[in-house]
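Protocol step 4 of 6: record predicted structures for both targets in the notebook before any analysis. Target 1:
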Amino acid sequence: MNLKRNVLAYLVVPTFGQSEASVHVRDGLFDEAGDIDEGSKKFLQNWIDHYVAWVKKHAA
């Protein structure tokens, strides 16, 4: 946990536990139309869905 997150925790500010999503660019990640492969699309959609739910939970 970095210093910024420690300060936020001390101040009882909610933080998103899975704050980063990484996609490794590799051959086959994008098709001819430039669309991302299905596995990566599902991974990113899952991350976005969890992030949106977290924001809604903590929105003022």
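Target 2:
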Amino acid sequence: MRFGMTIVTLGVDDLDRAAAFYEQGLGLEPSAISQGAIRFYQCGAAVLALYPRTGLLEDAQLPQASLGEPGRFDGVTLACNCASRQEVDGLMARAVAAGARMVKRPQEVFWGGYSGYFQDPEGHLWELAHADFFTLNEQGGLVLPPPARS
């Protein structure tokens, strides 16, 4: 059995606002299977889903008291690896123009790459990054080197 990340679901407080940000702001197209209270978007090798935050709690059988304040950092970041530094800058500008809040301007970082962070209108934190040592596949998915053998 293999573990693989296939879907990242963001719990949102306002599905229409979140969908508008990702569709009009970042240019994602909703999949034909999107319906009612859920939206699905192909994002490289993975899928991004938007679903009401309270519905996620219910689905996971967590108490409503687990629900944090909208816009608070939940200890999760999402990342979009880009093919170039220019792509990082362009995507950051597009996100900000669509209503995101720039948290960290794209810059050279300690790990040898180039990255910045924005917070979407629902409070989810995204890193936009480029690193020469990462390879992207045709779908924009990150291709990691094989595991080191001992």
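Step 5 preliminary note on target 2. The chain has a mean pLDDT of 85. The first strand starts at residue 7 and ends at 12.
Proceed to step 6 after PI sign-off.
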